[in-house]
Design brief:
It is found in: Cytoplasm. The protein is an alpha+beta fold. It is built from 16 helices and 12 strands. The chain is globular and about 65 Å long.
Length: 396
């Protein structure tokens, strides 16, 4: 059918953008994209959010998922047949026991990066270089998580295993790069005020665990900072959940009115109870690098949005409006609440988190508005920004 969108260079200031190659109707899927590399977040995995080590598909049944999030093992979900998890297909790596949702994922991981990263019997050995690296990362980057050092480790392992190393190095180099000053800002944002010392510690552990002479530049202080910033700038949050899959399937059931009302009430209450117990951490979460999605620029009035409806790392970009051939396709880096705030507030968040000032039609139309935030906005600012961004990144 040919792709409905293509990346084009716009300007050195904006970099690349994504443009429609044909007319796209509202609600249509613009594309489905698989990441070049992806990885579950480390705290997320530590807290028993069980996901396929390759594609991040949730591995618990919807009922097990709900029981764990509720802290209540007696919970029974109605309509268990609406759960899509197939435990009979799950497989483990025979050497290190990480779990995959299928033979295909185990094979894909093995062929791309797992030979280098398989810990074998050292899986629980705290002195193994890879375990030391992960422990150091967890101690620097607490939930809500936005990135993982293992995404970078998988990039290195992919190149190490590849027959055509240059092809992969080129694939990674097409992700937008920043100037050294901007890179430093990204790293500072990810690691906090002690970032210089922490980055150097991570670099030494990263080198001990993964050094490869083909990639020697990635292990120098400048190269490592660039790699770090690349992942920090381009990483797209991925969220999967067998419970939300089950809810979507239940929503689609054709039920008599009374049963429908009962089921809806049950689901609403379930989510309220889970929120009390687990807060906003509902999903298996990780991040990935997506070639096309990373070309999508931000707009405060986006015409497309990303989601993960297949309960794995396959990213769907869906049109929110009719988009004409030649028109730029934009997503929003802000969540719904943030988009409703003043231009000043929106740009404050975008500058802090993404290092740019927005000039979308909405921001241009509000350019003459006073550069002050209203009082209630001031109060709402500060603490909530990261959590809100987090939600936006990983919404399923």
């Amino acid at each position: 059918a040919g792709a409905a969108a293509e990346a084009r260079f716009i300007s050195s200031a904006k970099g690349k953008g994504l443009f429609a190659t044909k007319n796209i109707r509202k609600g249509e899927t613009v594309f489905v994209e698989r990441p070049v590399v992806s990885s579950q977040f480390l705290w997320n995995a530590l807290y028993n959010y069980r996901a396929c080590d390759h594609c991040l598909r949730a591995l618990e049944t919807a009922e097990e998922n709900a029981q764990r999030l509720l802290g209540k093992s007696s919970l029974v979900l109605p309509h268990p047949e609406q759960c899509s998890i197939r435990k009979d297909l799950h497989q483990q790596c025979p050497r290190c026991q990480v779990t995959y949702c299928s033979a295909e994922c185990r094979q894909a991981a093995l062929e791309q990066y797992h030979q280098v990263l398989c810990l074998g019997p050292s899986r629980d050995d705290p002195t193994h270089p890879l375990n030391k690296l992960q422990e150091a990362w967890r101690n620097m980057h607490y939930p809500p998580e936005t990135s993982s050092i293992m995404l970078m480790a998988r990039m290195v392992a992919t190149v190490k295993q590849a027959k055509d190393k240059d092809w992969w190095i080129k694939a990674f180099s097409q992700f937008c790069s920043k100037t050294a000053n901007e890179e430093e800002e990204v790293v500072h944002k990810l690691l906090g005020d002690k970032f210089k010392g922490q980055l150097e510690l991570l670099r030494l552990l990263f080198t001990e665990a993964l050094y490869d002479e083909h990639l020697s530049r990635w292990f120098t202080p400048e190269g490592f900072q660039s790699l770090f910033a690349l992942v920090g700038t381009n990483g797209q949050g991925i969220g999967t959940s067998s419970l939300s899959q089950w809810v979507h399937a239940c929503d689609a059931l054709d039920l008599p009115m009374l049963q429908r009302e009962e089921l809806d009430a049950f689901i609403d209450q379930l989510y309220k109870d889970i929120e009390k117990e687990s807060g906003e951490f509902l999903n298996c979460e990780g991040s990935g690098l997506y070639v096309l999605q990373s070309c999508c620029n931000h707009s405060c009035i986006p015409n497309a949005e990303t989601s993960f409806p297949e309960n794995n790392f396959l990213l769907h970009l869906t049109a929110l409006e009719d988009i004409e051939a030649g028109e730029e396709i934009c997503i929003s880096y802000l969540d719904c609440c943030q988009r409703e705030r003043s231009r000043h507030s929106r740009n404050k968040i975008l500058r802090e988190n993404y290092l740019f000032t927005c000039s979308c039609p909405k921001c241009l139309a509000q350019a003459d508005d006073a550069d002050v935030t209203s009082d209630e906005e001031e109060e709402g600012e500060g603490e909530t920004d990261d959590a809100e961004l987090e939600d936006e990144m990983t919404d399923v």
